[in-house]
Amino acid sequence: MSVVPASIIAPIRQEFLALLPDRADAHPLGCHNPRIPDAVVFDRLVLALVSGMGYERVADETCSATTIRRRRDEWIDAGVASHLVIAVLRAYDHMVGLELDELSADGCIAKAPSGGECAGRSPVDRGKQGIKRSQLTDAHGIPVVTLPAGANTRDHTLLPETLDGFTAVAQELGCAPQRPALSLDAGYDYQPVYADLAERDITPRITPRGTKTPIQTDGRWVVERTNSWMNNFGKLRRCTERRRACVEFYLALATVIITVRSLIRRAWYTHR
Length: 272
Known about the structure:
The chain is an alpha/beta fold. It has helices spanning 6-19, 38-51, 55-58, 65-78, 80-95, 155-173, 191-199, 221-231, 234-237, 244-270, and strands spanning 102-111, 120-121, 129-137, 143-150, 181-184, 203-206. Strand 2 (120-121) and strand 3 form a beta hairpin.
């Protein structure tokens, strides 16, 4: 039984398989072992993402852990996950519409017990290894950009790279907004942030440091909800991947699942 409802994972699987490059068998005598279907390996990766289990526990007699790792690396090298994110965001924008005029961004710290390229000393977990996600969403909480970094990285230092990712995504979708508003918490109340947002023609909505402002007042609650959605995935809540490329692969896969789920829920009321 799939860990994600079939109504959500089936279209994602179909689009993912369609984006895979054609594979030619270069062995002169062929291969005596049949290749495991890509759909089977994809389902195992989704299971690992949702449950957070290791590849040895996800594997069974139909698909080994070595096959899962090898196929994952093949798909990372092909850049399939990033293309899938753009395809899903484009579909959401076409059917429902991305609300990119009202943006929200925030950071979220998760555990990273294995360390790795994206890990750092967590300031909220007694200096243990942790990972931070710099999350940017639209007005409804659809994850547009998710950037991994070490847990000891300050939120406002990740904002320029996050906004660069947003600019690239907006150009891919062809829906770059004019002077969007960006809601941020007090962790971004620094002069370099205001200067950077002014250069990008983005209207800042930043909570001043030292004041207590409810997150409902400026629209920041949607990014907090998206961070909670991301933490529902075991692989992201307790990240055991050491390579940055693997972390980004699972972040992209989680983004796709969240977006498709939101698309189905909102389309139920707008496209019945």
